[in-house]
Amino acid sequence: MSVFEQIAKFKVVPVIAIESPDAALSLADALLAGTLPIAEITFRTEAAAAVIRKMTQERPNLLVGAGTILTPDNLKAAVDSGAAFGVAPGCNPKIIEAAQKMNFPFVPGVCTPSDVEAALSNGCKILKFFPAGAMGGLTMLKALIAPYGNTGVQFMPTGGVSPDNLNEYLSTKGVIACGGTWIATKDDIASGKWELIASRCREVATLVSKL
After folding, report:
1. Annotated catalytic sites, by residue?
2. Please, which pLDDT band fits residue 113 given cuts at 50, 70 and 90?
3. pLDDT digit string (tens) for 34-77?
4. Contact (CB, 8 A) for 205 and 36
5. Res 126: pLDDT
6. Full DSSP string of 75-98
7. Taken in order 56, 167, 173, 156, is the CA torsion positive or negative?
8. 41-69 burial, b for 16+ CB within 10 Å, e for fewer?
9. How many CA atoms within 13 Å lie on the side-chain side of 191?
């Protein structure tokens, strides 16, 4: 099963900014206990590469990706740390090209028709719709899917996705998965709320099982 097939199976990717590698394994265990064994660890913190490395080496049953890949250094750090996939908030042709040369599964971010066409012209069919809520949510997403759906493009809306609208997003044709920033917040991780994180994962897994 390819990385993108696994993402499509899980349907929700916890998008996580974590401040310390010391919490990496406890976080990983909470995701595994919650039966949502996937994470996008964002390069919004200096700990990201170390967290990815620790998770991939010590919790091989967890599918770990890297998020907020903005620079070639971020990309190299993600690959060197063992990330299974990468995600960016924007559509940077140089980063896309570098990821392709590394055979690294990569999801650029889009929010306009021009962004979608730029991504498609660079060979990308799995795209992050970001920031979903601020850009009009499902209304805008469906407007993008209408002219581009026939190309085979699929979207991962992130930013503004919540338990309240998750079902509607996931029920939309053309959505492969959603990014979930509410599942494991910085405050939850800092406070060691592992059971709360696991509980949120279980809720997501239950919803997904009914789709």
Report:
1. 40, 128
2. very high
3. 999 999 999 999 999 999 999 999 999 999 999 999 999 999 99
4. yes
5. 98
6. HHHHHHTT-S-EE-SS--HHHHHH
7. negative
8. bbbbbebbbbbbbbbbeebeebbbbbbbb
9. 9
Q: Which two tokens stand for residue 205?
A: 């897994």
Extract the tokens encoding 163.
Answer: 């338990």
First to last CA, the chain: 20
Q: Please report the DSSP string for the chain in residue order.
A: --HHHHHHHH-EEEEE--S-GGGHHHHHHHHHHTT--EEEEETTSTTHHHHHHHHHHH-TTSEEEEE---SHHHHHHHHHTT-S-EE-SS--HHHHHHHHHTT--EE-EE-SHHHHHHHHHTT--EEEETTTTTTTHHHHHHHHHHHHGGGT-EEEE-SS--TTTHHHHHTSTTB--EEESSSS-HHHHHTT-HHHHHHHHHHHHHHHHT-
* pLDDT band, residue 146 (cuts 50/70/90): very high
Tokens of 159: 């930013």
Whole-prediction pTM: 0.97
Give the pLDDT band of residue 78 (cuts 50, 70, 90): very high
Q: What are phi and psi of 63, to 5 degrees?
A: -85, 115
Q: Which amino acid is at 88?
A: A
* 135 band by pLDDT with thresholds 50, 70 and 90: very high
pLDDT of residue 66: 98
Question: What is the rounded average pLDDT of the residues 160-164?
Answer: 96
**Matching residue, tokens 């309240």:** 164
